[in-house]
Design brief:
The protein is of the alpha/beta class. It has helices spanning 9-25, 30-40; strands at 47-48, 53-54, 59-61, 66-68, 73-74, 79-81, 88-91, 96-97, 102-104, 109-112, 117-118, 123-125, 130-132, 137-138, 143-145, 148-149, 163-164, 168-170, 175-176, 181-182, 187-188, 193-194, 199-200, 208-211, 216-220, 225-226. Strand 24 (208-211) and strand 25 (216-220) form a beta hairpin.
Length: 233
């Protein structure tokens, strides 16, 4: 399974070092803690930009696969997991990651572009590639998982039938309301708004407003016209 991995000794040593550093410096509060983490964490991340703000309680697994850009902010109790080989988390400039967020590429790549906000307790998981564009607003408790379990064979446990991984893309300037669910293989077009609690199972065109389970487009922001949805008989 993809979860059962063996790491080279060099990466195991790097993880132990990162765990020690986060244990020593990860819970120091206030300005002094942020200052120390900004300095010391440079030694464990793949890349750490200027003026990055890291609050207490960040859980780091596989920090050597994580890059964080300039002036980005990581709130408390965030978990970043790049333990599975080839995992990458790339956080660009001026991104804000709120408390309790969980990013887990599972061997894939999660990328968050400039000036995007990720709300509390958002969960994002691979191993398909996930790209979130610039200036996006992702509200609390949203989830996006770029994988789907195979289950056609009744004689084999679902957990052992493997995955399909198509990837997820959220284009620039999108707003996802609280509790939105994004399924594998979906692209949400630029400037779109997804209503709270929606389950997005297929692509959403640019500048759309979509709501419901499954999500349906009800309005186009460019034309400001509503889309007529046939009644359900």
């Amino acid at each position: 399974m993809i979860y059962d991995v063996q790491q080279p000794d060099s990466l195991l040593r790097a993880q132990r070092r990162a765990s020690l550093i986060t244990a020593v410096f990860g819970s120091i509060p206030l300005f002094i803690g942020r200052k120390l983490r900004r300095f010391v964490y440079r030694t464990v991340f793949a890349d750490l930009g200027a003026d990055v703000n890291i609050e207490p309680g960040l859980e780091l697994i596989g920090a050597y696969g994580i890059s964080i850009g300039n002036q980005s902010s990581i709130s408390s109790n965030v978990a970043l997991n790049c333990w599975v080989p080839n995992s990458k988390i790339v956080i660009h400039d001026r991104v804000r990651i709120d408390r309790g967020v969980f990013l887990n590429p599972l061997g894939g790549r999660i990328e968050i572009d400039d000036m995007t906000y990720i709300g509390p307790y958002v969960c994002v998981g691979g191993p398909g590639r996930i790209k979130i564009g610039r200036n996006c607003l992702i509200a609390s408790h949203t989830s996006m998982y770029a994988n789907s379990h195979n289950f056609s064979n009744l004689d084999i446990p679902i957990s052992k039938q493997g995955l399909t991984c198509k990837g997820i893309q959220i284009e620039d300037d999108c707003w996802l309301g609280t509790g939105v669910r994004i399924l594998d293989g979906v692209t949400i077009g630029k400037g779109s708004v997804i209503g709270a609690g929606a389950v997005v199972t297929k692509d959403i065109p640019p500048y759309s407003v979509a709501v419901g389970v499954p999500a349906k487009v009800i309005k186009n922001r460019e034309s400001n016209q509503r889309v007529l949805i046939p009644p359900i008989n």
